[in-house]
Structure formats: structure tokens, C-alpha cells
Amino acid sequence: MNISMTPDEIQQQPFFHIPFWRAPEDELFTARARRLNHLARTIAVADSNWAHYLDLLAAVCLAQEDLCQKLTVLKPVIKADVLPLSPDLIDQYAPSWPQLFSHLHQAIHTRLTPTAQRVWQELLALPLSEQIALLQRARIHDLTLAEQDYTIWLNALLQIVYTRAAHELHEEQITPSAEIGFCPCCGHDAVGAVIIGQGELAGLRYLHCDLCNSRWHSVRARCSFCDHDHDLGAYRIETTDNEVLAAAEAECCPQCHGYRKRYQLEKQQNADPVADDLATLALDVLLSKDNWQRGGVNPFLLMA
Ligand SMILES: [Zn+2]
Ligand SMILES: [Zn+2]
């Protein structure tokens, strides 16, 4: 091997296979629930509203896992020039939505505030066609101001169907997207990224989709918004003794002035781009003061 090669060049050798796409991990929602409970105990102030919120989300995740396992799965139809998990998936799963809505509500209703109870009663009272229309708009972050209270619940439901459907796919069925920051599986904007901590993929960056929970490789030296490849910065809070915060970084691009958060799995092997995002908002606050523009929407952050 030519020792003058860079890590990227080594990884481009034909004998080194980098999986471009990785299906959602088995029992991902259970792992996320454990992570959220851990973050509620270690990051949030004890008994604070934020700690209760993280614990509520953990309960949502456990219900998601249960519903994901029980979901009647449709075989994905792969067509040229169409995303494997297209927006049509919401219509295709129309028979499943009534049960998903009612079962998710049943699983968490004892934990809901009176306001959230009211929101759920509104959702449950809607005809299926309107529930589906809301799900379609939630998928593309296009809910009206009056519908914002539905965001977390609609996204939790969408995640169940899209994640379960992504489990049915294989790497060879996925075509890389021209826009690297968007999921090649369902088209959603990446909520964040992880840097793999160990094994032969150590050091590689995988972007994470919060909708279908699949991950795709993208070269770490390039901006995931504009593909710029010079002087990308990785900002972190250096002074913290908090291990969760120490594992979080923001990839900042001097060209487009965007940033996306990523998590060093070598430091926090159970970091989850959806859960840890909620526990590392201090990083976003610091970056927003310098006018960096965040990329990657976390639907669980909108309600907070
Ligand atoms: Zn996706
Ligand atoms: Zn950029």
C-alpha cells in the first residue's frame, strides 16, 4: 500500500467497500428510547420540564417500536427515477393509519398534558382523508401555523411507516442523490450525521434521516449542503466536562455559512442524531449568535 495516500484515497481503493447506504438499525426506536431516558437523567435539570419532555419522547419511541413490529408491511416497488420510499407511501399505507393514530395515542395518553390531550382529540376526530393530508404536509415541513401543534405526533407516526419500509430495502436498490444532504431513500433532509467510531469504517461520516432512519455515506471533507471542499470547520464546546456535549460537533461551511450537527460515536457510542440533537442545543445557541444557519430539521424540537 502506498503510505502517502490519504485516508480518503485508501478508502477509494477497490478492495475497500464502503456501504453507501445502511438500513435502520434493528430495534432503533428502543435504543433511542434508552438514549432519551439517559439524556433526561444526565443532561436535563432533574424534574425540569425538559427532563419530562425527553422522558415523554422516550415513551413515544417505545410505542413506535411496538407499532413498527406490528405494522403490515408492503413490499417496496422500485421504479427508475423515483425514490424508493416516495411520498406515495403515505397513501399506500392508508389502511394502517387509523390503527397507528389510535394505538400511539393509547400508549402515551396518561403522560400527556391537557393541551396535548386536546391536540390529540382533534387529530383523532379527523376523517382519514384529512389525517393523510396532514401527514403529507408534515412530511415536507409544510404544516400551517395553526397545525404546528400536530408536528411531533404526525412525525412520530410517519417515522414508524418510513422506518419499517426502509427495513425492506437493500443497498443495491438505492441510488445516491445529487443533493448529498438529502436522504437517497425518502428524500428527507438529514437531521444530522454520525462519525463512525470503530471498525474498518472508523472516521467515516454517515448522514442520518430522521424520517426513515437510514444512513448514507458522504465524504467528510465536503459540505453536505453545497459540496464545498475547503476549510470546513468542526466546532464543538471545548470547555465542557459534559461527555454528551463533548461528542457533538457542528460542521460549518465558510462557503454557504450552513452547519449541520454530527456526533462522534468514538466518544459516545450510543449517540443518536435525533435524541442527542435535543441534548446539545447549547451548541446551536452559540452558532446562531455568529449567524451560522442550521441545516437539518428535528421534528421533536419544534414543539419544545
Ligand atoms: Zn430517509
Ligand atoms: Zn456549504
Taken together, the total number of domains comes to 2
How large is the share of residues in beta strands?
A: 5-15%
Helix content: 25-40%
Low-confidence stretches: none
What overall form do the CA principal axes indicate?
A: globular
Number of strands: 8
Give the H and E element order: HEHHHHHHHEEEEHEEHHE
Global mean pLDDT: 92
Overall radius of gyration: 19 Å
Largest sheet: 8 strands, mixed
Number of helical segments? 11
Structural class: alpha+beta
Bound small molecules, by name, code or SMILES, are: zinc ion
Could you give the distance between the termini?
Answer: 51 Å
Description of the structure:
By secondary structure, this protein is of the alpha+beta class. It folds into two domains: 22-166, no CATH class; 178-294, FdhE-like fold (Alpha-Beta Complex). It has eleven helices and eight strands. It has helices at 7-11, 28-42, 49-70, 89-92, 97-108, 114-125, 128-139, 151-166, 243-246, 275-279, 281-289; strands at 21-22, 190-195, 205-209, 215-217, 233-235, 248-252, 258-264, 293-294. Strands 1, 2, 3, 4, 5, 6, 7 and 8 form an eight-stranded mixed sheet that branches. The chain is globular. The model has no long low-confidence stretch (mean pLDDT 92).
